[in-house]
Protein 1
Amino acid sequence: MKSFLHYFAGMALGLGLLIQSASAQTFPPFAELKPQNALPDPLTMLSGSKVETVREWETKRRPELQQLFQHYMYGKLPAAPQMVDAKTLFTNAKFLDGKATLRELSVRFSLPGVKANAPSWSKHTLHVLLITPNDRLTPAPAFVTMNFCGNHSIVADEQVKIPENWVYKSCKGVENDHATAAGRGSQADVWNVDLIIAKGYAFASFYSGDIDPDTADFGDGLAGEMKPDLQFAPDDPGAIACWAWGYHRVIDALEKQVAAKAANLNLKQVAAVGHSRNGKTTLLAAAMDPRIALAIPTQAGCGGTAPSRFLRGESDKQVESVKRINTSFPHWFCDEFTSFNDDPMRLPFDQNCLVAICAPRPVLFANAVEDGWANPDGQLEVLKAAAPVYALYGKRGIDANAKPEVDKVIGQELGYFIRPGKHSMNRQDWEAFLQFAEKHFAPN
Ligand code: GCU
């Protein structure tokens, strides 16, 4: 009997592997993909067959799109770790004149991809800044964000850790590529935590460099730790996929806080926010994890919220192209994505399909009038071309004839906001984010 079971189990395993490799082979090489000038229909399978029900969407097309984006563009997100451990480093219950509690968590995780029976801790530690409102009676909805300059740049509290690894030169207080105490609180006007707390929301943030410093060194982040020989496959994850995985680990840590009754959070109302390259990450993170109930990628542009195709024949000079982004930032996407440098029309999807994966969850794109590089007009087209999937759920999404209105959030579950000014995140943006979140989360 034992040997029969063994034989049977072996067959099942063999069959499983066959099915797995068969599904991997269903994705044609670049040269066999047909060019499509318009944004591809999210409801048409790669095979050409049309999806007509929520069930077909959820069981067939949505998983196919999740795989397609990982195969051709971002690389495969690392598997969820087997072990996650979150330790509270400090608690300040008197933050913002007693209106909020500030804590920092140190989150360790096991290295993804290591065999089930032998997980080992990754050398990366995620520091999560968590700020919760004190006078809220019901569990607080939470914004989960990824920051550019380190948690210490968000608030001036001296207990907050300063990142020890590489940090962008443009961040205040950075010397020799490393952050210093001079950067404490320097990004307070970007994050507007006082406003978020006043509206009864919690705020969590992590520095992208805790997962993967944004350098073209492929060895200094999580992907390099998973493949120490640095022999990457065409669909191994780029930095954006690893950062998106970081958002998911923050939610793991928040779940632990709630389970331990250490923070009163409503985890059914987690909104992810990120600016620019971090916004590209936000949208991918939301598409890959339904625990993100609402997504706000802001001024994210090419590789995020803007189309990879040129819809109106824009030249590289006006809006960022696939070739330009892959050349300037070779570590953001998977290697396979470079095949599309000169022919993005062959992509079997466009960013409208990434938004569609999030349906029926609300998504807001935020933009700035002077940030043409991020292609605000193209972004509105992307939202409109995601709407058919929202319609499948009986949601309005955004109307096909919607026009941008400066200083105003337009649309329903698919929102679009544009304000005057440049590429940045500011208080006016947060007012719009909060308005959008309140519309979809309240009353709670
Ligand atoms: C560059 C890049 C954009 C990116 C932006 C940012 O401008 O070309 O793709 O969004 O940096 O992250 O600020």
Protein 2
Amino acid sequence: MADTQNLLLLPGDGIGPEVMAEVERFIAFFNKKSNKVKFDTDTDLAGGAAYDKHGVAITEEAMGKAHACSAILFGAVGGPKWDKVPYEHRPEAALLRIRKELDLFANLRPAICYPALAEASTLRREVVEGLDMLIIRELTGGVYFGEPKEIVTLENGEKRAVDTQVYTTHEIERITRVAFDLARTRGNKVHSAEKNNVMKTGVLWKEVVIDTHKKHGQGIELHHILADNCAMQLIRNPKQFDVIVTDNLFGDILSDAAAMMTGSLGMLPSASLGAPGNDGKRKAFYEPVHGSAPDIAGQGKANPIATIASFGMALRYSFGLVAEADMVDKAISNALAQGYRTGDIMQPNMRSVGTTEMGKAILGELERLVV
Ligand code: IPM
Ligand code: MG
């Protein structure tokens, strides 16, 4: 009997619904072909779309579904249309609430340079060709959530804004252990990025990483790197990295930089995982790293690869369907090798396609691999 898995789809705003429509083809495909799994899907609003209808970035009902499902597939949220909505209801609040409430502390952002795209990066081919690295970003702590977080008016009428960067031992230890565990499935090398030269959180981060390495890091080559130097090294020689573990804000920035090694931000998938529950399963959330791209929304131009690859990560990390996940990755690689390109990765003499055509091309390659 196939396992039934409940997927919650939150397409969100901008290009979110367009790229999610492509993932639905893949869900239907596995429902037809696989005897291991059956996906039941439910869809809800998030971000600006939810605000327009309900006046909040995500409803309690949608949050209830998010807590109950086996995995969430997310598109993107935000756009200039919602620039003026109250801060607590801004579209991004949906994303941050899900991350925090489901305690999705481990954000996995793989950056892989597919051979066919080695020329698409702004960096030279030899710098990026064959790149396969993984950024592990702490996702529920740090300056994103630390209190106080406020803008106050001082007596002299001037304003003062505060964000608080805060980390505890436990938070650093659990993300470090995820990094070590995943490094063991790859190149056994971890770079921990912080700024212990200016930040107390950096001092503690480094201490805890060293300690965790003693206890749980057997066989792992560990390096400490200042986050600014890490940004520079990523551009200089990205292939020196296997796994980078870092905090919420540095991870946000370093993963955007890493995305460009792959040719486009439209290529980067992500998984956000919680701690294993009593049933051994982790809460899980999958989303492309790119945003809602309002400038091209509704035009059928968006690159669906990051979202399709995020679904591939769901197969791998939530459902144990590793062979199937490998096939999805291979299908993406093959469609690229066939010359299919959306605008963001277009190169001379390649075949310029839109969102749907790219989705269908990848699905066609998957069908060839599965039969
Ligand atoms: C990301 C995004 C989000 C973040 C935004 C949309 C809140 O940039 O997932 O990288 O900063 O975490
Ligand atoms: Mg970001």
Protein 3
Amino acid sequence: MRDWPSDRIALGGDYNPEQWPSHVWAQDVALMHTAGVSFVSLGIFSWSWLEPEPGRFEFGWLDEVLGLLHDGGIAVDLATGTASPPPWFSHKYPDTLPVDVDGRRLWPGSRQAWCPSSQVFTEHAVALAEQMARRYHDHPAVAMWHVSNEYGCHNLPCYCDRCAEAFRTWLLDRYGDLEALNTGWATAFWSQRYTAWEQVLPPRATTTFGNPTQALDYWRFGSDTLLAQFVAERDVLHRLSPGIPVTTNFMTLDHFRMLDYARWAPEQDIVSTDHYVVQVEDPRHDQQAELSFAGDLTRGLAGGRPWALMEHSTSAVNWQPVNPAKPPGQLLRDSLAHVAHGADTLGFFQWRASRAGAEKFHSALVPHAGQDTKVFREISDLGEACARLAEVVGSRVLAEVALLWDYDAAWACGLQGHPSSAIEYGQVPHDLHRALRAAGITVDVVAPGTDLAAYKVVLVPTLYLCSQDTADAVAAAARAGAQVLVTYFSGIVDEVDHVRLGGYPGAFRELLGIRVEEFFPLLPGQTLTLDDGSSGTLWSELMRCEGAQVHASYADGPLQGGPAVTRNPVEAGAAWYVSTRLDQTANRALLEQVLAAADVRRPVAAAEGVEVVQRSDGTRTWTFLINHTDRDAEVSLAGRNLLTGRTVSGRWSLAAGAVAVVREDD
Ligand code: GAL
């Protein structure tokens, strides 16, 4: 496999030359040099320019652009161009347009307007990918293939009749026969028993709550269907363009949970993703912590290997109600935070801000105001930093704590008819991750099924749906010496969303040495106090200890005197349980005890607000220090700061908003 450029942290972004007159292209390449750009993702939305009429291809303009980029030493992540079919496609095949939950067919005129189950779409996409691969497989500029774009971002779920048909085939494959489907979907409930496959439908708009397992399976089906589309294009590229890595850009940010990336990641030659910082009103939301979480999740999907950030923004996006610009310095902090968490490639959307079209007010590397701008200067500084960080490329992030994250559990947790609609899958994972990040502890966010043997602490937050294998692996980790921490609404149901009987949390009850009889969800604004002074919101439980020790009890409310937080010694390790959403101070205090029991220590002493992450190649260690505060911050660490070239030792001050990357063996 040809190497994606590795002589520096790759820097670049989406390049859409078809939006500009050709005389701008040479200027672009020259400017890319000025900025230190080393790669571009090219042709992502170019289908209508590559194939303006069915079967008639126009590659001349792309030949020219590729030539210019190659002459300029810019590596190309070449798209197959299949993210958005041209108007002629939907005009010729109108039934390839997706259908919403109410049965309305969507119109063309935006992007990604195709039904995930459409064979006609797949055939046309694969045909274009084949043309691209045949023409460019040995082009010296092409260093990676980029299939489609953010699969599922706009066209999932589709509820059309074709999807209904494909869903039945998918279900037949999963369940084997109708009898098993009836059992899995528990159709004895509300007279839903199916007697013929034609009766089975997608979870379209219904009178009231639909069947939860049907809804869950529809998420799985949608993810698998799009994955098959990706694989179809990828296989053509592997066959016709061997040795060039193939990827598609994921969206591992918190607000996107349409695809089960744990099933997608093994199909990628390089795991790549996009990330945008967003405004969220939840007072507990912390943009920077969410960015770190996304990096840790992407790294988990990549099996710990370095990954590629395909897109982030130099400043404002344009798709929120209000789109704040990034203040000076945030571009560098955001980008290097991604590198700290394992990225070796930093891509942005997009190279040159569009003059027109739906994204004309989205930031870019070259803003409307041109080169003499804050953004372009900051990009040029980042370009220099990427070169200075060359030696970090290929190294791995060090972490002793694992946090289980599962898209299946997320989908199931979000289904209707639950004890509290205020329980959102991401809440506790982010709470715990944020508390650990603040304490200078790095977390690997990993999918169930990941080998947990190397971890000293294993966190299992709101893993509502959980297989027996996962429960067994978590218990084995505790027996082998890990401190395991499970939180409420975990292990409640099996893979078909059937409750595990005998007391909650069924899958973990024995490991935790507790038995929960009844959920006591809290109303919005309601807070319970615990006897250690901490507080809980959202959720509480009537439980008793069956072997576990009480760590904290409810001090008020209907469960007063009952256990709230427990700890169960398990052979070489222990299993902790938290039955409410603790406040962040309490989460920090609890995690400190868990970390102490596991002998996990922060690697470097740094003031509050300084993010600390380490990468290592086995011999050398690089410590990333990111000061997210507006105050100078004290750090104790000796080595060479690669970003300035200067040595540091003893206690020193990291300037407000500054980043340092210190190689410690110097
Ligand atoms: C991404 C997408 C890009 C661009 C960007 C704007 O989701 O892949 O094409 O639309 O958002 O933030």
